[in-house]
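Appendix B, record 7
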Amino acid sequence: MTTDHFQHPVIDTGRAHPARVYDWLLGGKDNYPVDEAVGETLPPEARDAARQNRAFMNRAVAHLAARGIHQFLDIGTGIPTAPNLHQIVQRTVPSAKVVYADNDPIVLRHAQALLVSSPEGATDYIQADVREPDEIVRHAREVLDFDRPIALSLIALMHFVTDQEDAHGIVRALVATLPPGSHLILSHAAIDLFPELAEQVIAQYAKGGIELGFRTRAEVARFFDGLEMLPPGLVTATEWYGEGQEPPAPQESGIYAGVARVP
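Structure tokens (predicted):
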């Protein structure tokens, strides 16, 4: 099952976009010279971080699917990179329902790949910005049952939302719509693990017109206020794995990651 609510906004190829820079860092081809220009100025660790984020997402959603979570809302999904979230969870739960949201129009061009659901399940895509949580939830309600647990996925997203834009308030508003038994999956760039590298990345993104709000561990932990952290708690992306999963190979990471349950 798929649904179609698409509009067709114009793609701005003269300004870098986080989703397209991320695609370049992952070795993708769906980006423009302006995105590549930002990516090429970043330290090699930025590519490692992109891969680490993706691997964390894979482990986290697989773990929740195995725990019986059958609905997923993935905001800031980015350009499709196999395996996509729905492919991971529908291996375990063919009837799983997934709603994707992103604010980059180029993702819309690839939404057909995101919407190839298993016959038993459902996928949908909305062109929307996390800064408009009410709009995202309104649309997601058309596919997801907000009386049953939902996993909200915010992978490498909230460090693109500044404190002035009330990043913590946005996450609180989204989590507040979720029923008990839901989960928040979140990864976030750290300012305090490798400060010099972090400042370099922030400066290079700024030259491309993208403002970043990297945060300390305490500031990232605030996104999980009132929630029940799953083991191993708030750790780096390469340290997180669910019960019964193979531990990732030890590797330094400048990304915090965690999964928490809505009580």
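Remarks on this record: The chain is about 35% helix and 15% strand. Strands lie at 71-75, 97-102, 122-127, 151-155, 183-189, 228-229, 235-236, 255-261.
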